[in-house]
Amino acid sequence: MHELPRALQDFTPANGQIKLDYDDFQVEEIPLYPAAGSGTHTYFLVQKAGLTTPQAANDIARALGVRRRDLGFAGMKDSRAVTRQWFSLEHVDPNAIQQIQLPRISILDVTQHRNKLRLGHLKGNRFLIRVRNTHTTRLTDLQSALASLTTHGVPNYFGPQRFGSRGDTWQTGQALLRNDLDTALDLILGQPGEFDHGAIRRARDLYHQGHYTQARSLWPGMFRDERRALATLQRTSGNKRRALAAIDKGTRRLYVSAYQSHLFNQVVAARLATGLQSLWPGDLAYLHANGAVFTVEDAPAEQPRADAFEISPTGPLFGYRMTEPAGQAAEIEARLLTEANLTRATFHQGPHRVKGSRRPVRFRPENAEIRLGADQRGAYLELSFVLPRGCYATCLLRELFTEQGPQSLAADDPGTEDHTD
Predict the structure, then answer these.
(1) Structural domain contains residue 315
(2) How far is the C-alpha of 97 from the C-alpha of 67, rounded, in Å?
(3) CA–CA separation, 337 and 131 (whole Å)
(4) Are residues 214 and 141 in the same domain?
(5) Is residue 324 part of a domain?
(6) Among 20, 129, 210, 254, which residue's CB has the most CB atoms within a 10 Å radius?
(7) Are strands 293-295 and 362-363 parallel, antiparallel or unpaired?
(8) What's the CA gap between 262 and 419, in Å, rounded?
């Protein structure tokens, strides 16, 4: 996301690296509601390190002898981190949960509730992040910059982990919406790039050579969609339509969702030039207190509420349920689709149609602080803050620190974004 503009254009970010240790990036979920203490669903608080949420869910399911899909959780969390999040499972002995012993997984608490946890069932996330190899002498400057972000807001971009390790999942979604099946499958199974290494890189090369069985054997077992698609290609003599159909429908929706996110980011970038707090006539504004969205009829009258961070302009997650703005906001969104050779109807029809919604173009970090700390590795800057669900810590960090190297501020793991939490 280095090409996206920052809010703090006049601030020179400091160098910095995160995630040199798992403990350097800590995330704790803030539940949307407290567990009732009774019910058929067992809720259990999991602390994990070095695992994505799906990996942890798979390990827990195997340990309990249940199906992975029977487990519920509210959000996806990074692997290169220490994270604490709630899981749920119905009709299970709580004692069996408490007795789970797995590498890199600890059960911290167990209780009961009446329903299964679903994606999005949380209020936000609490972060504790240590930035190393940075300019600790700039602590005062960074504290002032953080105060400005707290006052005016952070661009609510979807972070790089939203777009996979290769950064191209949005392109796959675009191809699916255009019904360009060859391009979509080539992106999923082929086109090796700088982020592909070892067996997976060889598998991508073999796909282009038509050696589907050999390519399938090189994809690790956790890549079930890729393996199913390659098996279908071998069985059907290279029928790409059927190979795409073999990929889980939910996975295909994630590709389209990534494209929605890409378009949203472009709208945020366009609006940043006039200020993310600026309301326009015809805008659809987001009420931060309860998530309601309403049409701005009188922008000057509503502007004081935006200045007080009670409301914010929104951007599009295009889909058949998305309400459309009017005026200048509508022009920006329409121009974006025209440049992509798409229309709003593209998201309303066909096998990959999506619901859509509106999303605020900025977010406010709560309880945000920067402190100086030190340990055996040396001095570091420690940030703590709370973000609403669906907002990315990466977007806050990139305002304050530069992105540098494979363990830099953009080094979040693919597929573990917090968009839905």
Answers:
(1) no
(2) 15
(3) 38
(4) no
(5) no
(6) 129
(7) unpaired
(8) 13
CA dihedral sign, ordered 196, 202, 208, 210: negative
Q: What is the Cα–Cα distance from 21 to 60, expressed in whole angstroms?
A: 24
CA distance linking residue 202 with residue 118, whole number of Å? 37
pTM: 0.91
Token pair listed for 65: 């002898």
Name the residue with tokens 């619901």: 355
Mark whether 7 and 118 lie in a shared domain.
Answer: yes
Strands 82-90 and 25-31: parallel
Q: How many whole angstroms separate alpha carbon 298 and alpha carbon 195? A: 48
**What are the distances in angstroms from CA 49 to CA 28, 56, 68, 102, 136?**
12, 9, 19, 11, 27
Question: Which structure tokens are listed for 314?
Answer: 């929104």
Residues 131 and 208 in one domain: no
Question: 78 catalytic, yes or no?
Answer: yes
Asked if residue 218 and residue 149 are part of one domain, the reply reads no
**Structure tokens given for 310:** 């009670």
Domain limits at 211?
A: 169-250
Q: How far is residue 185's CA from residue 164's CA, in Å, rounded to a whole number?
A: 15
Provide the 3-class DSSP secondary structure of residue 331. Answer: helix
CATH of the domain at 179: 1.10.1510.30
Integer angstrom CA distances of residue 10 from 98, 143, 148, 258, 317: 51, 15, 12, 30, 30
| Adjacency order of strands within the sheet including 357-360 | 293-295, 284-287, 311-317, 357-360
User: Does one domain contain both 188 and 60?
Assistant: no
CB atoms within 10 A of CB 332: 17
Q: How far, in Å, CA of 363 to CA of 366, rounded?
A: 10
The number of folded domains in the chain is 2
Element counts in the chain: helices (H) and strands (E): 13, 14
pLDDT tens, 23-32? 999 999 999 9
Q: Could you give the CA distance from residue 311 to residue 291 in angstroms, rounded to a whole number?
A: 9
SS3 364: coil
* Candidates 24, 59, 78, 413; catalytic one: 78
Per residue in 352-387, pLDDT tens?
889 999 999 999 999 999 999 999 999 999 999 999
Q: How far apart are CA 359 and CA 322, in angstroms?
A: 10
Same domain? For 144 and 175 the reply is no
By DSSP bridging, strand 105-113 and strand 311-317 are unpaired
